[in-house]
## 1
Amino acid sequence: MSTFGVPVTVDTLLNEVKIEDYDALAIPGGFEEYGFYDEAFSEEVSELIRGVNSQHKPIASVCVAALALAHSGILTGKKATIYHLNGGNRQKQLGEYGVEVINEPIVQTDNIITSYCPQTAPGVAFSLLSILMGEEKMSEVRTAMGY
């Protein structure tokens, strides 16, 4: 990634984020072969996650993004879910962080939402919207979108 020919990294951009300017954090999953874990496990991402969590703001993750949350330490001792296919390899990995892995599509614990595959993304979005705007507004949007 670059801005006017100057290389910009995700970590550089994250250092400019002011948590107080945001109401929530949403992290999509990604693929190992495209560098997802290199970025998701960076100290800058972990600091951002811990900062958002310390302010009790909602944090939503889809699929393997729960590993970034676990790596930051905010899921230790909590219930969460993660990608459930391929023999449960990612579930085992999440468990190694001291997480109580629940084999359900979406798990919400306190201010944290996790899900177990890309197909759950709309459900995660609606859960996050419900936290931010309330159940009534979420239902209105959900209906307008045809869900």
## 2
Amino acid sequence: MSLFVPKFDESVIVRDAGAEVVGRAPTTVKLLADSSATGGALSTVRVTLTDGADGARPHLHNNSAEMFFVLDGAAELLSGDDVVTAGRGDLVVVPPGRPHAFAAVPGSDADLLVVITPGVERFAYFRHLQRIHLGEVTPESLLEVQELYDNHFLHSEPWDGRRR
């Protein structure tokens, strides 16, 4: 096992009022710290979902683990072939290469802290999603940047079947 030692000299401090927010209800993403700010240690965002909203469709990261900490509400999370419900204070960590997705539980909101480690420059990915939402680029354009963001989409029967 190799040890990754991040390279940065100063503490990273992000004030709530100064954090960039992309999207709007039902899905908003607050950009907290990207990989470049943390010397590659991590990338982190806060995702707020209202009333059963989807957060991310099934995908995997080849080179990073992803942590989901439920700050408030309840979320459904895909991990491999399992769909788990996580409530306030629950933590789910998905290893590299494992399919995952997340959404707010129907009838509930969810407020999640999401951390990817080691970090990947992800803020541009969330801005890309915003451009798709605004109709500036097509949803298919995400396929062109999968490698860049280590975000590889896939199909998941357990995820698709969870609300039938």
## 3
Amino acid sequence: MKPRITVLTLGVDDLERSLRFYRDGLGLATEGIVGEEFEHGAVAFFDLQAGMKLAIWRRADMAHETKLPLAPPSPTEFTIGHNVGSKAEVDRVMALAGKAGATIVDPAHDAFWGGYSGHFLDPDGHLWEVVWNPAWEPDED
């Protein structure tokens, strides 16, 4: 399989609240909620980098579409990694997330592997890691 992942979709309980968090709080670019004319279709897309998008979609609608039962969310299933260029930028993004309403679960700190990172939960409990890795250069597109 050649990787062609272009959209990461997060199931949310309150689409408007999540839209405000990502758009107004974190400053991600979006056209807002689209697809409201379709049953189970309301979704918002946020531009990330190099054609990648983050989508938010109601968990109940996602369950309907996939024919899976609606299950309780678990923040420890995966993390979304946001790589930045410095320790100071980790601190800035963590502060921005906290101000936007995120729950800081792991304040920024020096990591055992030589980097610097912190973790926060978005309003629906999705776990984000904000990280500076001295071995990686972030794409500044």
## 4
Amino acid sequence: MPEGAVSASVSLDRLFELAEVLGSMMERGVAAHGLTRARAGLLWALFHDGPMTQRALAGQLGVTPRNVTGLIDALEADGLVARTPHPADRRATLVSLTESGRALTAGLREGRDELAVELFGDMPAAQLAAIYDGLETVITRLRTIDQASR
């Protein structure tokens, strides 16, 4: 391999390492708030997209409606989400963040924003753009490979 050249295998190894480090940090970060990654993901979806039905949440999170019910039950018991009747569909229930849920999720976002500044704050714009562009390409290709394998 020519000097400075990086192989596809080495690049993939670095992505695996990145996934492990980020995953570990996420686990510790959400655990510090008494959450699992699955529960935090549900809160995050509601934080970004607002109230939605349990079926919509299941689809967005890529889990079964039964799994969503369990997650919502636990989050509701902790006072982080609330279920209310759907205004237009009497068979459906809307799930939304409570004030405590919004505050917790906003705190998680602040932590994420602080990490972003720590990682990328002093990086030159061209380097940051190159990282972004490279990751966009990798994510698009991974989604294509994932869809083809289903």
